[in-house]
Amino acid sequence: MDDAAVHVLVFPWPRQGHINPMLHFATALVDAGVQVTFLHTERNLRRLAQAPPPGLRLLSIPDGQPDGHPPGFLELLESMSTTGSAAYRALLSAADAPVTCVVADSTIPFAFDIAEELGIPSLAFVTHSACSYLAILSMPKLVELGETAFPADDLVRGVPGMEGFLRRRDLPRGLCCAERGGEDPLVLKIAEVTARTSKARALIVNTAASMERSALAHIASCTTDVFAVGPLHARSRFAASASLWREDDECMAWLDGHDDRSVVYVSLGSLAVITHEQFTEFLAGLAATGYAFLWVLRPDMVQMASSALLREAVGAAEGGRGRVIEWAPQRDVLRHRAVGCFLTHAGWNSTLECAVEGVPMVCWPFFVDQQTNSRFVDAVWRTGLDMKDICDRGAVERTVREVMVSDEIWGVAQAMAQQLRLDVAETGSSSSDFERLVHFIGELKH
Ligand code: UDX
């Protein structure tokens, strides 16, 4: 490596929904002439189904977890903070080319602490929305105010800029339908970790000012420098996602056989695990709509059920109208003319990917940021409807039907897509913020 070059170490939280946006970010940096090292865990590096984008150097550290064990967030944070952090420190200290700065996921506090200890500036990358970042940060205060639990429809006063529409049921929570609201230890831990991003030299958010102007302004008022550079996938030359599962490309031919806007695409992201009862309610609701559907059911997704069994259940109920796959080429699916709506958990990547294609959403949020994102989809952006914590066949049928036939929602979703394309075009606000960021990083070298 050229010692004179700006060299950024990009360190995502080792989960699919964090790797994807940070990989798009890394390739954008490479395109801007920056040298980039991308840090995976050893386990994920082995699992990657696809070659890395050219120009990107991949390194890895252990996650401290035994093989074959899918850990929860708190468990993984603990082992990453011990085993992973020691390897990270060693790697940073021994880097063959000096690291100008670290850009680490906002979820990994040790990444900032260790970098700064070694005299390396650190920047925090937020893979979720600006609105959910604010909501998460507000959680400890909301617990104090007693604003987190039921009654679910009461408006929340403690999250800046959202006083008029954010309800208690839209606040981050640990598990779908859990009744403990913000007292949930997972949410409070995430709030604590998120608060530590104030130590970072700047905050990079995968969002666009046109979508989240108010939330970004509130964040900017209490932090150093904020860069809204998203949706990053829409400006990335790296076409596919860095999937940890093998994508089922055959579903594209299946979509080709359907009319425009006639298929419901269903995916609850990379982490959600649903009960067998929830699966049954979704299936019955989808069947009752009469629409064809493409459903992503990861092998580990439904408690106590194999994917073969689920495929059989869907086949029997649907007489061929439903297709189940284990992992989709999601961005291609959303871009397909046959897709009329996306039944989604409202994870931020899925929300952005859907918004860029102008596809209406039906949201069934599962946890943490998704609760707030889905409220914004319904009440602020108006690009879809939010089922929130209701999961029964009637709600699924009603909401999917309503979104599929609504020209109004379709029109708003298409207008948002157009705006986002302008935002990531050469003179758009996200591109300008990205350029400003590259300059900011360059200045750190001096
Ligand atoms: C969670 C959070 O909800 C999200 O907001 C946070 O930033 C990361 O962790 P996750 O469940 O992974 O996210 O959902 P999402 O953010 O939507 O990311 C999933 C990614 O996997 C998307 O980029 C999506 O395109 C991809 N995906 C999903 C596929 O490529 N194929 C699939 O079949 C399903």
From TrEMBL:
SUPFAM superfamilies: UDP-Glycosyltransferase/glycogen phosphorylase. Gene3D superfamilies: Glycogen Phosphorylase B. Keywords: Transferase. It comes from the Eukaryota. The keyword Transferase applies. Belongs to the UDP-glycosyltransferase family. This is Glycosyltransferase.
